[in-house]
Design brief:
Layout lengths: L2 H17 L9 E2 L4 E3 L5 E10 L12 H13 L14 E10 L8 E8 L10 E8 L5 E8 L5 E4 L4 E4 L4 E10 L12 E6 L4 H15 L4 E3 L4 E5 L8 H9 L2 E2 L6 E5 L4 E4 L4 E2 L2 E3 L5 E6 L2 E3 L10 E3 L2 E6 L7 E3 L5 H9 L5 H14 L2 E2 L1 E4 L1
GO molecular function: structural molecule activity
Subcellular location: Bacterial flagellum basal body
GO biological process, one term: bacterial-type flagellum-dependent cell motility
């Protein structure tokens, strides 16, 4: 190799070694983590039941007639007639029970269920869900749920003060549901599999097509659109479809991530994607704070004057426009770190930063999609 070409090759290698670490590396994931197979899905189940054994935190029966009717009907099925009795228990709560029937679930499979209070129960802690049929969208019973309810929060207090943490009106029954009816899913003789992308994207769909064709042969897979990739089952796998799916799901794929900023205004949470870019821009931001204070005063007449004592309102209004903020210049951000450093230089709170991001998007300097949740 000539000496000049050798020097150029070494220089190019050194240059690439300096540039590549600065570029954001896209993570490779398994194909099974970004797709689902069409037809292989879960089914939503719902039911109505009763939770018993509560420590006085159940529904008030006079305010929740459905709880009283359900309790009376349950006792009558057990041979106890309470039609003329005045039931006043606070140890029972009416709940809506939900669950997801996973695909290929066989009879006897145990699933987790969720119980949520329907009445004015204060807490389901310590309760037990009694036998509750779980129905599908067609009205058929697919599972039956029963078991102790596990509540993540707690509530305690007295007459003057109470303490609570988390949500105590809903809980889970681990392995509390038992599958009684199967949902048939037949894939044994399938000639075509359709793969649905969880995050539709044309680039990701084409990468999946290329990976499948390299693994199972040319023209085996084809991307139909940005959300669907079709795979023709090779003849060697017609009788061994689980082996095909297992090999397919383990293929490494580099998904394309869009430039997106996700904003939750209720909590002030901001998530910035790695592909977000910003042009050079100058930003200033100030808050207008108006504080209104009510301090009513009592006007009392002199003794034996015959006047009346009245309350005179007094209102103080303070205005602070916070003009101390400076004009900050955010340089061009070519990486996520540059963008974060530039926005942090403004010294803004998360809720103020949301307004700045919206203004940047309106000005055209922010090259990303703003998604509010």
């Amino acid at each position: 190799m000539p000496r000049r070409i050798l020097r150029h090759t070494k220089f190019l290698g050194l240059l690439l070694g300096l540039l590549l670490p600065a570029l954001p590396a896209s993570a490779q994931v398994r194909l099974k983590d970004i797709i689902t197979i069409e037809g292989v899905r879960g089914n939503q189940l719902v039911g109505y039941g009763l939770v018993i054994g509560l420590q006085g935190t159940g529904d008030q029966l006079r305010n929740n007639p459905f709880t009283l009717q359900s309790l009376s009907a349950m006792l009558e099925r057990m041979g106890i007639n309470v039609a003329d009795a005045r039931v006043q228990t606070r140890n029972t709560a009416a709940v809506i029970v939900t669950a997801t029937l996973p695909p290929f679930a066989r009879q006897g499979t145990l699933i987790d269920v969720q119980a949520s209070s329907l009445g004015d129960s204060r807490s389901l802690n310590g309760g037990t869900l009694i036998v509750t049929p779980l129905l599908g969208a067609d009205g058929e019973v697919y599972a039956v749920a029963q078991g102790p309810v596990v509540v993540g929060g707690f509530q305690a207090g007295g007459q003057a003060q109470s303490v609570s943490s988390g949500v105590t009106t809903q809980g889970r029954v681990p392995s509390g549901g038992m599958v009684e009816r199967e949902v048939p899913i037949e894939l044994r003789n399938a000639e075509v599999l359709r793969l649905s992308l969880r995050a539709p994207d044309f680039t990701t769909a084409l990468r999946i097509e290329e990976a499948l064709n390299r693994r199972f042969g040319p023209d085996t897979a084809s991307a139909l659109d940005l959300a669907t990739v079709q795979l023709r089952v090779p003849v060697a796998f017609r009788e061994r479809l689980p082996a095909l799916v297992a090999q397919m799901e383990s293929l490494p794929i580099t998904p394309e991530t869009p430039a997106r900023v996700v904003i939750d205004e209720r909590t002030g949470t901001i998530v910035v994607g790695a592909q977000v870019r910003i042009d050079p821009v100058a930003i200033t931001h100030g808050n207008l704070v108006i504080r209104v204070t009510e301090t009513p005063q009592v006007s009392q007449p002199n003794p034996l004057s015959g006047g009346e004592t009245v309350v005179v309102p007094r209102t103080d209004v303070e205005v602070d426009d916070q003009r101390g903020r400076r004009l900050a210049v955010v340089p061009q951000a070519s990486t996520l770190k540059d963008l974060v450093d530039g926005l942090n230089a403004l010294g803004l709170a998360p809720r103020d930063l949301i307004s700045v991001l919206m203004a940047l998007k309106a000005s055209g300097a922010l090259h990303a999609e703003l998604q509010f949740i």
